[in-house]
Structure formats: structure tokens, C-alpha cells
User: What shape does this take?
Amino acid sequence: MKIKNISSVKGTLAIRDPFILAAYHFDQYPEGNGQMGPNASLNDRNIGNDFDSAKPWRMYHGETIPGFPHHPHRGFEVITVVPEGYVDHFDSKGSKGRYGQGDVQLMNVGSGVLHSEMFPLIHDDQPNPLRLFQIWLNLPGKDKLHEPDYKMLWHEDIPIKTIPSKHDGEVKIKVILGAYQGVKSIDPLPNSWASNPQNHVGLALIEMDPHTEFTLEAVSPTLNRFVFFYEGNNSIQLESQELRKGQLADVDGNEEIRIVNNDQKAFILILEGEPINEPVAAYGPFVMNTERELQDAFQEYRSTQFGGWPWGDQEQDLVNAKEESRFASYHFGERIDRPNVK
Assistant: This one.
């Protein structure tokens, strides 16, 4: 059976091992208010916990600027893909940055880290749409307590495979992790489950012109593979079945999967990987193998705060200067990384 299941996505994708969670956010933020918050009333918002999916945008846990103020993690890798909009990052290891407009952040939280991810509304004269995928890729027990690590994949550097159509148009495959159509991604983080090619971890964004098609290659009988049609004005054909916008398909990793677009441009996320096949004990921000390890994680966090928050008293809605461009600063400025903008 090539297609195992099709489900509708309401913010969270129904994925499984080696993935713990996959979230999709699309917020149509209005113009900014000059302070990187929305130029709109917040009177009807549940400030601090604003997740109302019936509204065109959300504040999440932000009070004046949308986003997620600092919180802890342990035991997995966070992959954040931002096709539209901007994210401001701060963490307890002294790193900070601003990324977006196609960039991807890889962050192995390892033994424990505090981080914040806020969504600054930079433009005061036009809307500030934000489109974001966040994927939690699990780690095997032997790798859960490595030193935390992170790096940026600037969109200018992420490889893209372009496949011309037999007719007009083309298919573009942005290869974030793994390999597709003979194109390999930038190297993942060293202790990632994706660092071993035999784990077949793949992550790609597909942009299909109207009336184009492409085929996912068969990989292995144990591969978990998902196809998410996240943007487009019509449906696409996944083998013999229709996949509509906002739907996720769980497909066979040991079969070729043919995807055919209709008469509107379509945008698709591909997510796949071999299972780790270890017990999972997860609660909130921590993902371990046993309940005892989970209790130990909470106890260590209560005792040490994973090193504490080094960014002063501003714990809520911490962002970079409005005029700052995309950048990554590591360990209190020991190294600064910026995209090579042509």
C-alpha cells in the first residue's frame, strides 16, 4: 500500500519515529507598530497563551511581540524552517541571531539549553506574514547528553534541484536534509540522527509549477515518510489519490511515490527518516528514554536552570534591534556568521 493514511493538519503534523513533533505555523501578521509588535488591538487576545486557530494570527506566549519567550529543552534536535517572515533567537549558551525568508536553523539541544524564539514584525508599512515549520528530531539514548550545538543554513546556501517539466514550468526541490534527485544537503550537525546517511533522514521543500510532476524514490521498507501539501489553491494527485491543501499523507518508504500537480502552483513538505526504535519518555520540553531520565532532567533544570539565562532581566519578548539584518552570533560574539547575500 503506497499511501497508508491521509489526515488534515491543524497546526501539528501526525508524524512518528524518528520525529517527536512537527508543527506548522502560518500567521498573517499585520503591519508592525514601530516596536516590532502588531499594529492592532490585543484586547481580545489571551495574552501569554494565544493559540486561537480561528484568527488569522496569534501572539502565542508573547505579550507585546509574537513568539515563544525563553523555555528549556533536553534530549533531541530542533529544526526550524522559515519560508516567510523572521525569527529572533537567543539561548543560554550565549548565542543569538535573526533568520528567516527561507533560512533554516538546526539546534541540537543535547544535555539542556534555554532558548527563545520571537517573531519580530519588522515592517511598519506592510503586512508581516510568518510561515514556519518546527520539527523535533529525536536522538538515540547514547547521544542525548552531548553538549548543545546549533548552526544556520542560510537560504542562499541551501541546494536546490530544478527539474524541467515535459510541458511548461518546473519543479524546485530545496534539499534541507538528506539527498533528493542526486542533490545532497549541507552537512547536518555532528551528533544528529541525520548525520548517519543510513538513517535516511530527509527534509525538503517542493515548489511545483502547474501541470508538473515528480517522483520520490523508493528508499527502504522501514522508512517513515510524510508528504504535506501546505500551500496552493487546488489539490494535487498523490499516486491515485487526491491530496488537498492542509492535508498530510503517510506514504510507503519502500515504493516510488508519484506526485502530479494540477493547474495552480503547489508547495509541499517532505519529511522522512528511519526509526530510532528506542523507548520514548517525553513530557513538555524534555524527551528522554525512561521516566527516571525524565525526572532527572526536570530535577537538573530546577537546580541549575541549564546554566541560567544570560540576557539580563528582559525575559519576555526579547528581540534584536529592529534595523538588524539576518545574522548568527555564537557564544557571546566569539564568532559572527552572516549570509553571503549576492
Remarks:
- The chain has one helix and 26 strands.
- The longest strand covers residues 19-29.
